[in-house]
What we know:
flat; alpha/beta; three-stranded antiparallel sheet; 15 strands
Amino acid sequence: MPTPDPSPPDHPPPSTLRPGGIVHSYQRYDPVSFPSPTAPPPDLASAAFDHMLAYGSLRNLTEEELANAVRLDPSMIPSLGPSLESIRALLEERKRRILATYDPSPALPEARTAFRDASHAARAAEPPPKARDAFERAVAAEQLRDLERLWYAQKNERSPFAVALLHAMERLAEVYQVEDLLTKRTFTGREVLDVPGALRVRDELDTIDKLLEQLRQAEKDARVGVIDADDLAEFLDADAMAQFNQLAEMVREALRAHAQAQGLDATREGYRLTPRAYSIFQKKLLREIFADLQAARSGRHHAVPRGEGVVEIERTRPYEFGDPVTSLDVVRTLANAAARTPPGTPLRPTLDDVEVHRTRNTPRCATAVLLDMSGSMRYAGQYVNAKRMALALDGLIRTEYPGDFLTFIEMYSLAKIRPVADIPTLLPKPVSIGLPVVRLKADLSDPRTSELALPQHFTNIQHALRLARQALAHQDTPNRQIVLITDGLPTAHFEGSTLYLLYPPDPRTERATMREAALCAQAGITVNIFLLPSWSQDSDDVQFAHRLAESTQGRVFFTGGNDLDRFVLWDYVARRRRILG
């Protein structure tokens, strides 16, 4: 190490006055883009919820999969950038040395010679007469796909011709791989490679390119989990690999900390969602849904209607005969009396001094959401959109209208009331009958009849409407509605205790469903239908939806699956405004 000059000049060069600049350049520190300590953390809760909505469980969501689903800020881990950059530089140098050392061009004629010898051996094995012409054409054109078809057409894969043909296919595949190597790479070396050596170099270069792409991606979003550690270990020494593993552990620790802060508890079975995770996900859904609303015309900040209500507001008004004593504003009343009373005289409030709080009406709404989980809801992932809508509606009511009633009903061959905690785990029922015509019935009053033995993938709108009507009947409010999310006609209904499963949709099922809708109308319940697109949907589905909605003074909404949550929530908000007005 050189000895420093004991007598430095009076005016040292500027570079010696700023050692911090060297450190900043080495660490890739950018004071402009340095992350703020108050920056929001990566959204892990939404990634976990998306996985759960699609698969109904977090059982298979590993830390690596969660890391791949989110974007981390690489600047959150100071040593990440320099470490990955040094590994990338090492791999690029390794790639450059390979290209500057070897010459695989002689391997191509060697591979072609091996293929010609193998094809001669296959020809000597006497191909069947029907396959002879096809074999000659495939060999002349060097078409591997035609040779594969010819091999699959052989009845006996152990015949001499089939064995020789398979050997020729392997040699032709080597010709393809060497040609690919020479076409994509530019070699400047002089060390000649034979066919096996050229194939080894090709595999090594492909692995390096894959690792380089993974490293570039990790430098952008800190997704160290995408880097193949097994492949990387072939190019790094033990110390460098230990440093990389330590870096990957730092990223995993950061993910665990963010996951815990956002309500994701790691267990042996996978991640478990806590109420905090539900709250974060619902708030994000509401922000996305209402981001498209105009603040002035369609925003949620609507005026408060005043009248004879039960909730007091800060503004007051003079007392009128019949006003309840509980609305009396004592402070304002005494202040009015003091202002009217001359100084030095006792305070004597009069009726003109009395003021009462203004009130507002707070009518409640009662809503039952029927979620179709029949087999057809798997089409285009419609069930995911339905569950996302349910969670968003629950979040809206909890935050904006906490006095409203909301219940969810799962609809399939039967129907069941489900708590909101079960919504993410619901999945469409598997189709267990593939016949074009199904006519089944089951007496559920028979104790020997098990629900698990029944086909689950039919659509029983009648039973779901009945459960919704019974749930809403106990709600003391005239504002009751049913939101039906489905993709088509009903295919199941009850007659007494007998369950009928009829496909294609039968008029008998439609009549039973319309009778239940009539009972909902008699109870003052409106049915609004959100009809999702389906591969089997036709005019009969649309006409039935209109008849069902019109019988209860409801409406039909035709929407694509991705917009379902917006349509349902906007309609709910609009309905609440009309009630409040």
